[in-house]
């Protein structure tokens, strides 16, 4: 199958020499993209380091790679000045990796040998590339951020700082502690808590990561083909600057965020969002089509399976073991990411119990006899019966939730 080279766009049937996930027209193009692709490649050829994930985060502009050990190793747990200083650290890594061109293996070597800060300062000092004097000054003044023996801020402490930043943003007192915030918000309804958590994500990074699938879907990030959704992050930053928290919560509860966006003079920005953004927000928060949750799960490549309500319409209940679950997930990854099948067309096929029939007639569908046999079995669904004979997303969610609750109750009592 002909695809476009990820680097230069040339039509090609060639792929990464280590896997078939990425299309490259030449070894030159593959080498140019390797720093970004190595973390996704099935056979990277060496053990990956946290520096590889740091570089991938920078190249892809995707914060989902910047978590856990990577965030710890490269200073994010030792930044004590909140989101603003985290942004400076982001900028430093962008200059080090993108502008100056320091390789991940070099960063890894500096870190494990305990000389990361000294080498970064020296690199900034001798480069002829154009860099920020502000970033260089901050780097020199904060050796403790890059020192593994320095004081670290835990994941929990960082989360608390983000929540307090969001609390102050919506009008909470600067002197309020975390306990004060919890006391004052304890009687909020669930939808208001959801909005507050979303505000924290927007204040910290413009929005949720794809691994946080519920806000990722409910606030419309799921319509993007990337793991970041950068244009929407800017739209939400602009929106929360123009509306009150109460206005946002009411609009979210009533599925009227589109109207709120337009009323604040942001319609032109909204119109630049991908197809189906309006559809998702008009169904949010309660009745967004399940396909968007499946797509988020596939794109995020999470190991943990999502809610059974999300997987059931797409044949996962027919899988006999973990190997078949993985096999079906890889197939859907090909369908949604490589074939770029419109998500709502796949959802409509699921509603009609015609997933295999719909996909097998596509020109891109190529499969062995064994694969066809597997797909025919697992993609044989009973969604029309399960959905109560309705294509309404509201009815689908109600029926699915009731059925899953019934199944769980059955297993608990037997």
Automatic annotation (TrEMBL):
One GO MF term attached to the UniProt entry: zinc ion binding
Segments forming domain MYND-type: 5-41
Pfam families: zf-MYND
Keyword RNA-binding set for record: no
InterPro entries: Znf_MYND
Keyword tags: Metal-binding, Zinc, Zinc-finger
Coiled coil (residue ranges): none
Keyword match Metal-binding: yes
Protein name as catalogued: MYND-type domain-containing protein
Originating organism: Sistotremastrum suecicum HHB10207 ss-3
Source taxonomy: Eukaryota, Fungi, Dikarya, Basidiomycota, Agaricomycotina
